[in-house]
Amino acid sequence: MAASAPRQTLTIRTPDDWHVHLRDGALLQAVVGHTAAQFARAIVMPNLKPPITTVAQASAYRERIRQALERSAGTEAASGFTPLMTAYLTETIAPDELERGFAAGVFTAAKLYPAGATTNSDAGVRDLAHITPVLTCMERIGMPLLIHGEVTDPAVDIFDREAVFIERHLKPLLERHPALKVVLEHITTAEAVQFVEAGPSNLGATITPHHLHINRNALFQGGLRPDMYCLPVAKRELHRLALRKAATSGNPKFFLGTDSAPHLRHAKESSCGCAGIYNAPYALESYAQVFSEENAIDQLEAFASLNGPRFYGLPLNQGSVTLERRDPDPEAPGLPAILELANGTAEPSRLVPFHAGEQLDWHITARNR
Ligand code: NCD
Ligand code: ZN
């Protein structure tokens, strides 16, 4: 028998997820435990139906998240996880509402969806000029603006929508609001990496695990693969490589945001399948795999646990998570092809996780809260 490589272990400060979709109702109860098992805090996206646009809605949603977690994972899990709430920017939202929610610690940030860009974005913003007072207020109070950076112009090729957004909208926006804290969410292109690197320190970006693992070929591997479809859609290999370089570089502007976006299996496997990849179950292991492949496992803690809180001006987590690298076992079964998650109803929620059927080298072995 060949000698196996020595096991490698890594202990890092407990990470946070700076971009996640936890949904609501039964699906919330099914998925929230996966995020809370790995992360101490998470920036919760507001694209519910109807969207979260008021302080009252955000407080009520935060309470539903706590209750769902308590029901699915117990009181200790619920007390060890802090959902950070966001406001969904519409063209009619009042600056006062944001300021009041931010001051009360209910809103941590506000999310800009260009209308029509993605799931439940119809109530989003059609023209950035219409929300100038909102952005001016956020700039003044130091409230971060989280951007889904894609143009919705149907004349623009879907693979170019992020790069065009940067030129047409993000550059002018930063010129108009030079002190606004901006996070370009789930970046997918070399252009975004370059723009963020060259930008001021109040500009950051999140990077998902899936955009570090797959390029657009994954959507068509042997047939149409709805489980690899998300927005912004995965791009060419050169972009994936630029993202891997950025994430593992140690540059404090880049941090972890899974964009875990669960849609039930039947909604993905349809003639018009929903956009979103459910990566929460193995998110940290997925990132660790990338960092170790890039010989940069020592940079995982900065990306996962330090850069995000520093950008947001929040304290670092006190706890830790330990991961262990084991050689893949050719005999071992892969990760489940499908998860059937209890959700408080008679029917479990059926979801296909990212990395279904694969093996990952890194495993979480301990967590100290
Ligand atoms: C997200 C969703 O399903 O809510 N989908 C996705 O593909 N990422 C919305 C989003 O973040 O664009
Ligand atoms: Zn998202």
What is the CATH homologous superfamily assignment? Metal-dependent hydrolases
Find the structural class using helix and strand composition.
alpha/beta
SSE string, helix = H, strand = E?
A: EEHEHHEHEHEHEHEHHEHHHEEEE
Instruction: Outline the biggest β-sheet.
Output: 8 strands, parallel
Q: What's the CATH first level?
A: Alpha Beta
Distance between the termini: 39 Å
Estimate the mean pLDDT confidence.
97
How big a fraction of the residues is strand? Answer: 15-25%
What does this structure look like?
The chain has 369 residues and is α/β, with parallel strands linked by helices. It has a single domain (15-318), classed as Metal-dependent hydrolases (TIM Barrel). Helix content is 34%, strand content 16%. The protein is built from twelve helices and 13 strands. Strands 2-3-4-5-6-7-8-9 form an eight-stranded parallel beta sheet. Strand 7, helix 7 (190-198) and strand 8 form a beta-alpha-beta unit. Helix 1 crosses helix 2 (55-73) and helix 4 (95-103) runs parallel beside helix 5 (132-141). The longest helix is centred in the first third of the chain and has 19 residues, at 55-73. The model has no long low-confidence stretch (mean pLDDT 97). N-carbamoyl-L-aspartate (NCD) is lined by residues 21, 47, 118-119, 148, 230-231, 259, 261, 275-276. The site of zinc ion has 5 residues, from loops.
